[in-house]
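input
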Amino acid sequence: MNKTKKDQIFSYFPKSKAKLKLLLMFLIIILLGINYPLLDRVLNNFIENYEFGIVERVIDGDTLVVNETTVRLLGINCPEKGEKYYEEAKEYLENLTLHKFVKLKRTKEDLDIYKRKLRYVLIGSTNINLEIVKAGYANFYFPSGKDIFYKEFKEAWKECVSRGLNICEKSKDKCAFCIEIKNFNFEKQSLTLKNNCQYSCDLNRWTIKDEGRKKFEFENFTLDREITIKVGVGENTNNTLFWAGEEYVWTNTGDTIILRDKDDKLVLWWNY
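output
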């Protein structure tokens, strides 16, 4: 005889009262053992650290609008308007996110100085911020310190450099193989570049920058042996150039030195 649905359900329960009591006691012990305050904190953290919405507009390669709120993507820095690959970075982000449902993950900070939300943008299990670095439209950028995604982003940048994609494209200038960072002093905000070749190198319009927006451009300068770049105000000499107008360039939470040639191709990068 076929069992009814009701019979099938009740067949999973113990037949005797003794076994039923044991089962109830076991369930009570489990319930008493649950750490409700901990469970509550975990649920609250999940709710607080994640938001959901539709991408309404893309402003640039690392900024978009979700639920009428501007969101600055964490962990990356894209070219600014007027710089090479600005339009490509913006278009890439549009193709990935525009009019799509996204999850926003918050980490250390909520807002930046412009009151934009600082978030990682996720579609399913894909970290959109990370994809932008992989595609060569952003360098990794952690001005407030290294978070749980830092290693992934640094590895993505290294992979991008090895493949020479977009902003990671390596310089073909003959001097690109000559220049090295000889010394770097964070406390004094200074670095020394050394020319290892037997000929002078024309560094006119070459640039040094950090992970963010701070940039120094060489003007009508030829490097024979070595030069020290100092942040601050002073008089330029044959051996020292001043990066004027900045209180500091490299942060105490870790940063990157990025050197590019006059065509904005990557010469070298060094991270601490």
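quick obs: Helices lie at 5-10, 17-33, 36-49, 86-97, 128-134, 150-163.
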